[in-house]
Amino acid sequence: MKVVLLQDIKGTGKKDQIIEAADGFARNYLIPRKLAKEATSEVLNAIETSKGAQRHREEVKRNEAEAKSRELKGKVIQLSARGGDSGKLYGAVTNDQIAQAIKEQYGLDVDKRKVELDETIRSAGQYSVTVKLLAGISVRMLVNVKTTSK
Prior knowledge:
Blueprint: E1 2-5, E2 18-20, H1 23-30, E3 36-38, H2 41-72, E4 76-82, E5 88-93, H3 95-106, E6 115-117, E7 121-123, E8 125-134, E9 137-148
Parallel strand pairs: 4-9
Antiparallel strand pairs: 1-2, 1-3, 5-7, 6-8, 8-9
């Protein structure tokens, strides 16, 4: 009997995969536990429709990420941190501070784990950072750090 799996089953197959299962296995185990459905034309059409919608959503996300990447490329993030007269900071600039500065200055919400520093920022100056927007899409930005005496 041909069935469509509704979830991953170890040793049997992956979700949305069409498999040929023994009649007893399908009728007595897979279908009653809602692990699979019989492979009718309606079920196959529903799966194709959902896969098409998922591909469309991923394409829209990728296009948005590419547009944001083009918008942010070469931009400078202005950041001020407490430090001494010599330019040394009283700590380090964190990924979280950079992500918040991007949100404030450019209106883009970036997860702090997606900001990668080339080196630890412990003094005033310009530094290069990489912001990962989506898998395979990243943008290089400059961070201009200034010291304040407050």
